[in-house]
Amino acid sequence: MTTSDIPEPPKITEEHFLDTGTGVEAETEVEDAPPEIARPWNPEQIRVNTKQFSLRNALDMIEDGSLELAPDFQRGIVWKPVQKSRLIESVLLQIPLPAFYFAEDTDGLMRVVDGLQRLSTIRDFVRGGDERGFELKGLEYLQSAVEGKRFEDLPAPWKRRIYNTQIVTNVIDPTTPSDVMYDIFKRINTGGTPLNAQEIRHCMSKERSRTILRVMTSTVEFNAATNNMGGHIRMNDREMALRFAAFWLMGTDGYAKYAAMDPFLQRTTIMLDNVKDVNDARVGDLHEAFRKAMVNAHLVFDEQAFRKWPLDSSGRNPINRALFEAWSITLAKYETEDLERRREAIVDAARFLMKNDYQYLEAITSSTGDVRRVMLRFDVTAQAAEAGK
Length: 389
Hints:
This is DUF262 domain-containing protein. InterPro entries: GmrSD_N. Helices cover 50% and strands 9% of the residues. The chain has helices spanning 55-64, 81-92, 116-127, 143-146, 156-164, 178-188, 197-204, 207-217, 220-226, 236-258, 261-273, 280-301, 321-331, 336-356, 358-363, 371-384; strands at residues 14-17, 20-25, 48-54, 67-68, 100-104, 110-114, 166-172. β1 and β2 (20-25) form a beta hairpin. α10 packs across α11 (261-273). The longest helix has 23 residues, at 236-258. 34% of the residues are buried.
């Protein structure tokens, strides 16, 4: 294929959330792509128990730690005051709330996966998440009765109505395999603003993996390489750190075993949660490799790190997750002094690929979870990193 035969590069589309760009390129699937992986379920492995709790009971469980609202989850902040107030108004009007979904672990601890924002809002109003809770604003039916009031200002009958409200919860038994549990939550995750894959993983995971990923994405080095991506509203920062951990721990051969990104990342989350799979010393090595990768990426590519930056292009595109995987894992293997000497040659090689190698462009643009495309982008990226030797 000659240069003149190369098709136009695929259009770069940024992910948006609430009409605001997230700074991360959207991943797309080609229309005729095969399904990621065939994972038939054994119905006998799926155990879902339906239970009812009063809101008072649910709030007590949150306070005593037996019901977890996924610490440091970011998306609760996107609910506007009127949205929060109208949820409380619905409770006061005794309008039944949609069912909640909890995941239970072997210790009896339950985590909220579906209904997180609703329970967080109710908790903040009743128990004062921001010291005294929030005032009710923009109500539709109860303006004269409770507009402008906080929970502590409500008459006793209104408080009892909130406390006595019954919520229906579907609790997934801990004997349900984790990948099946994850797929169940993907299927039922159809609320007003559905959780993305990493947000679901975060809600289902334990404190250990959450801490590992939070530490990785809170570093100065990560934020320098990604233009302050840490604390991302959709947890794309945590997903990128998790992808690095997955390929660092299991490599591309490990990826081929799962043949799809979701089960690969879900397996990595389980490994990070289990000290027997990844002990503390190994976590230290992971953090150091990640820090080194970020330092090297910023050194070589500066503000263009992990972004499509073809020849003849001077703008800055959103971060591309496939490029993040390949370049971070590759650059973690090099010493900074070596890369500093060859920086220009590596940049030229990388930009040439993004201008002239259409297979490479496909591998970082659409159906990026396809095993062949994963292998191709890692191999070609590794070759580009050798430029100037």
